[in-house]
């Protein structure tokens, strides 16, 4: 079934537009909440992914977070310059760069779970538990997870 046609398509009424707008809204609110940690919401994703062992190379982070490799390199450069992570070449394959959080990076990552839920809960305050679960279910269905 086609939900959109050339006759009924409107940019501002499309699912893509709404998803982008929602993402931008959450990112701006998260960025404001993380300001005291001096990190952005995108950097938060990197730090948490590394802290939790979900990703340990730039390629894994790019794939997980949906960030192109060029932008990922620039973001990692900033985090490394700030002393939040370190890069090292793999002993098995010199093409692979391994990433590790520094002590400072670990400290900042440990503070994120005290901040992020507040931002998300504020945005979701008008949702019932059932609506929240349905939103999650539909988003997972949409992205194919």
UniProtKB/TrEMBL annotation:
Signal peptide: none annotated. GO terms for molecular function: DNA binding; DNA-binding transcription factor activity. Residues 1-144 form the HTH marR-type domain. It holds the Pfam family MarR_2. The keyword rRNA processing does not apply. Transmembrane segments: none annotated. InterPro entries: HTH_MarR-typ, WH-like_DNA-bd_sf, WH_DNA-bd_sf. PANTHER family: TRANSCRIPTIONAL REGULATOR, MARR, TRANSCRIPTIONAL REPRESSOR OF EMRAB OPERON. This is MFS transporter.
């Amino acid at each position: 079934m086609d939900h959109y046609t050339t006759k009924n398509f409107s940019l501002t009424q499309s699912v893509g537009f709404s998803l982008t707008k929602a993402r931008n809204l959450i990112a701006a609110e998260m960025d404001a909440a993380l300001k005291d940690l001096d990190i952005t919401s995108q950097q938060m994703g990197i730090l948490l992914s590394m802290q939790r062992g979900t990703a340990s190379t730039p390629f894994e982070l790019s794939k997980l977070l949906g960030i192109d490799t060029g932008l990922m390199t620039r973001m990692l450069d900033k985090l490394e310059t700030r002393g939040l992570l370190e890069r090292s070449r793999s002993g098995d394959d010199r093409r692979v760069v391994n990433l590790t959080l520094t002590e400072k990076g670990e400290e900042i990552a440990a503070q994120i779970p005290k901040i992020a839920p507040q931002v998300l809960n504020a945005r979701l305050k008008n949702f019932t538990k059932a609506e929240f679960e349905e939103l999650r279910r539909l988003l997972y269905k949409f992205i194919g997870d």
